[in-house]
Amino acid sequence: MRLSRRDALAALTGAGIVSGGAAATLARDQSPDANPDRVPELDADTVLDEETLATLVAAAEVVFPSDVSGITAFVYPYVTGKAGERPAFRDGVDAATTTLETYADLWRDASFTALGPAGRDGLLREMGVHTADPVPDGTHPERVRFYVVNELLYALYASPTGGDLVGIENPQGHPGGTVSYTQGPGGRR
Amino acid sequence: MSATDRTPSAEADVCVVGAGPAGALVARELAREGHEVVVLEAGPRFEDADREARMERTIRPAYAPDSVWKMGGPRDAYRSTGDRHYPLNAARVKGVGGSTLHWQGMVMRLHESDFRRASESGYGVDWPLSYEDLRPYYARAERALGVAGASDNPFAPPREEPHPLPAFEPSYSDALFAEACERVGVTTHSVPNARNSEPYDGRSPCVGYGTCKPVCPSGAKYDASHTVRQAEALGVEVIDRAPVQRLETGSDPGRVEAAVYATPDGTEHRQTAREFVLAAGGVEIPRLLLLSASPDHPDGLANRSGAVGRYFHDHLFAGMGGTLDRRTRQNHVGFLTSESHAFYDEPGRSTTGTAGGVPASDAALSAFKLEFLNYAGPSPVEMALSADDWGDSLLASLRGAYGTHVGMGGLVEQPPRAANRIALDRSTTDDHGNPVPDVQWSLDGRTRRTLERVNEVQAVVLEELGVDVDWRVGPENTGPAFHHMGTTRMGTDPDESVVRPDLRTHDVGNLRVASSAVFPTGGATNPTLTIAALALKCADHVAAALEPSASATG
């Protein structure tokens, strides 16, 4: 399944973020033939730096299912759109990705993004992120769970594309209307 | 008056305590009549712009449910000392909009039999009102809340007009249930919902966020902040974060002179008015009356009967569910579209269908209704955020867990008993030094039997549907539906009740109660439509009391 910038817009809409600068830029840039793997060019005044976004994409490549593609095109606009609207989220995700890179540097002598999927997965588990409670002001693993892993999972599974992976096209958190609930499997009435 | 000016209104005709649905409707209606109204609300205003962020809090496991609407802490301290724990802060919201901010939005009228419970069923008491007395107010309440419904419930009381909005279409799983119910002789029908099925009253239609309880981000679900805005446009002053500490009578002990309220800076103010209306819910209203004890009212204000705080009752939940061998399409929306009142007036009746039926019961039972859930089983996004895994393994878990669940719920009437009550716990104080409410709540034998009866009916339906049952909520593990009723009961005998049929307290001439607190009995329907109907009736009585001739005679 290929994620797109359109999916990111849907995820932002579900979060009530439809008017911010990044979301507006995203909404304007909806050409269907755009390369979904292209790394978007960031505005000079973007709210998150390139390194933070790259770390989030690298984490998404681990926590998203393996047959999901187009991750960069999804993560960049979603995260920058949300960070632009919610300063507390921006600060939290910035700090959490820095924490993740610090652990990678200390424990692996490498950047998190350079570890490769298996190495990133191993580092996250070694930190205890998989069993940590998501706590925005908690310990390092708890903050990484909240701002990195759960943020990415929320963006994916509360969106119609992520819901489709599981079998629900209008998952909780997405304003998908009042038709799908009346329909049976395969859209039957 | 600015949003931060919390000084008293100098010209108030009416002081309303509480900005939930009852207080909002009373204020709006009186403002329409040209009266000066001030509303004192203990909680804050919540910005509409924050609704999506609150929704995210409901889905993401980092946050406690009570935190969504900022319940908890010293302001909301309480005790629960009865046989059954009562999770009070999960059951209410303090703020502009009140508990409609987190309600589910099911709105049906009480049955005619509910008003004659003692006469017809031999338990509880009769209301001093009939269904016919409330019938016009029910219609007005449905318009005020914007009820989407259909006249397809053969057990419902007579209506004079259609609902304001068309009913929501039944869900896919409703159809599965309807077929099974028909085969065992149980009639199903639509649920009236206080949520827009199409644009109404300046609010959008439902867009299916699926988080109705406790947050509707779109505003399609009615909440009383909508009516508060209408009231304010008519000149009503709403003072938030202003918990009323006590009501004071003056030289005439039969009339309230002022409501004393506190503001965030710790200052106390006195709001005077000609008429006072308590609309702060079934817990805080009796608490305030008890806190208003004085030499003239040593047992609490309006408590000559000793009934203030007593006869607290709720609806009990009974349920059962499990999985089917096919997809059931759950968790697309967060509200119900079908239910059954088939046993409401005859809880022990038998049914017969083409594939058997429900056996009769000769036990002494209360009223109950059946509900068919649209959100049975796990929500994939919530499950993902709490899992100990990610990637392909997580996706496999989600696919394995989601998709085949169904569930039935049910509400059971609880007969009011004096021993169940809201009292003051003087060993614990809130952030202003006032004794906190002590919820003393227990179950009686009739309620237990009725919960078992609901499970019996649900088992028949689920077996016919072919459900592999994996959960059951009955007498042992039931909980309240968060409908606080009965603590300032209505009646004609001042020795047995707190308010008269016109909702004025027997003891205090300018004090009325608009709340489910006045319900003598609660039937088995969700109470808010009846609360709204009584609030509209209350407004009429207050308006009449404000007439010069009425004023002159006291």
From TrEMBL, chain A:
**Where on the tree of life does the source sit, at the highest rank?**
Archaea
**Where do the record's region annotations for Disordered lie?**
167-189
Q: Which InterPro entries match?
A: TAT_signal
Q: What is this protein called?
A: Gluconate 2-dehydrogenase subunit 3 family protein
The protein's organism comes out as: Salinirubellus salinus
UniProtKB/TrEMBL annotation, chain B:
Q: Which UniProt keywords apply?
A: FAD, Flavoprotein, Oxidoreductase
Which InterPro entries does the record match to this protein? FAD-dep_OxRdtase, FAD/NAD-bd_sf, GMC_OxRdtase_N, GMC_OxRtase_C, P2Ox-like
Pfam families the record matches = DAO, GMC_oxred_C, GMC_oxred_N
Which residue range or ranges hold the Glucose-methanol-choline oxidoreductase C-terminal domain? 416-535
So which cofactors does this thing need?
Answer: FAD
Question: Which domain of life, per UniProt?
Answer: Archaea
This protein is called what? GMC family oxidoreductase
Native species of this protein? Salinirubellus salinus
